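Pipeline run #58 for the internal structure catalog. This entry was flagged by the ingest filter as a single-chain record with no existing model, so it goes straight to prediction. Upstream metadata was stripped on purpose; only the residue string is passed forward. Reviewer on rotation: M.T. Logging verbosity set to normal.
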Amino acid sequence: MRRSLLYQIFPVYLTALLLAVGLLTFASTRVIRSAFYEEKKIELRNTTRLISTALELSRLLSDPNDEELSETRVDLAHLIADLPLRVTVISPEGVVLADTDIDPELAENHSARPEVVQALATGVGTHSRVSSSTAENSLYLALALTGTDLETVGVVRGAASVAGIDRRTREAFTAILLTGLLIIAGTTLPTFVVVKRIYRPLMTIQEAAVRYADGDLNYRIESQAPEEIQAIADTLNSMAAQLANTIAGITAQRNELEAILSSMVEGVIVVDENRRISSINRAAGRLFRVNHEAVTGKSMIEALRNVEIDELAAQTRERGGAQEAGLVIYDSPLTHVQVHATPLSYEGSAGVLLVLNDITKMKQLESIRRDFVANVSHELRTPITSILGFVETLRDGALQDSEAADRFIEIIHGHSVRLNLIIEDLLSLSRLESYNSEVPMENYKMDQIVTKAIQACEHEAERKEIHIHQSSEGLPMARVNPALFEQALVNLINNAVKYSPKGGEVAVKTHIHESLLQVDVTDRGEGIPRRDIERVFERFYRVDRARSRDVGGTGLGLAIVKHIAIAHGGEVSVMSTEGQGSTFTLRIPQTQSL
């Protein structure tokens, strides 16, 4: 677990300070103790040397006798009576000859004592140990005594207690340690404050860095910090401002590009060298029926499920030139797409730019145009061929046969009338399609329009003994173009009469509300097969071509109705059941108050 800077620096500082005080105390105590011991050694050496000289121990040890040793003991005791000192006279063999503290006869041999051994070897020997007689830590100093022939005749050893030195050393240790602790106590709080003053600006900078990482580039660091840290804060503020401006510019460009791509009618797809989708706009997503945001990063096969466009992208990348192809998206509804593929190099990668144009309507218009030309040619060919044939027959002599001539002329007249009807319907469609603006409309009583339309179809209805029933609901008036709307009703009613059985019934029902005009024309005829319902409003489309010609239809009536409805901003629809009849419905929105 990571700790903050404060809890990394301050404990280290405190530990270092404690260690420094401890080492200083230890070193100072050792130096003081060594100084005290050295001073004690000098004092002990001088005192011992002085005593040995004063008592002429070298001479006495050269030729010792009991009487002189006894006197020496007395003199020795008298000499050091007021000194905290123990003096021992030892023969070279380690025998204690005299001692100020114990009876020499009871003393053990001192030949193995370290200070004695050292003195016999070097002339001076020192050693520190706990005295067996006083049970105190004592310092022993032994001096070798030489005779007239410079041979060692004995050793005089002085011993002094160093308990006082140890006590003063402990007192010095305590004083130094307390002083160090006081220094630590006195400097800890100021040091903590100083570290805190450094730590807080750093935490402010850290918080700013986190906010910058989260995208909040408008945040600015405000702190009173040391010069170096303040320089970092100012640099970060400047960096954030520059980065914010850069990102704002990039974002604006990206949004503008996305807006352009989203607004384009053409689909745009960008793929990388592995044919994975880098970018796709909404129009392309609509063409392939996919969510354009969800397929980014996927392969074209996985996302679009179209092999042709994937192969086109691969060919474009391999050949290095622009490619163009048409493809079909087999979905409902069927969509025809023209694709322009161009190699694209960016950021060291070689991708492909695909621009897709929906040409479905163009294909449909081409198909309608072909069908229209074929249907017009077919519709015109039959009556024209018949007219030409009968005219040739009349020219070849049938004109002389009055009965045959009258019959042929009547047939020619019928075909001429049919040609005229086809031409009039085509002209009506042409006029409806040529409107560049809204058709002129006015408020008109719908009952009058419906009545006129029914009257126009009465002759055929009476011939087939069909009753046309008229009814209305809602408001009496509607906003329409009376002439065009009457033509649409005439076509619907006329179709209903033509395809109703003899003695049947046709119902025309009008619903007028403030927002919608609806007219239903219902018959009880044979109905329309389900497969033909969507196409009955196409030009020249007939459910039953043979019967349509028999009843005199041109195949353009419902197409005219559809265009009249569109010119009014409305629509026409049909509901039909085979064997039960059909209902054609005109709906015209009422956008202005009547």
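catalog note: The chain has four domains: 6-168, 264-358, 376-431, 438-589.
catalog note: The chain is about 50% helix and 20% strand.
status: ready for reviewer M.T.
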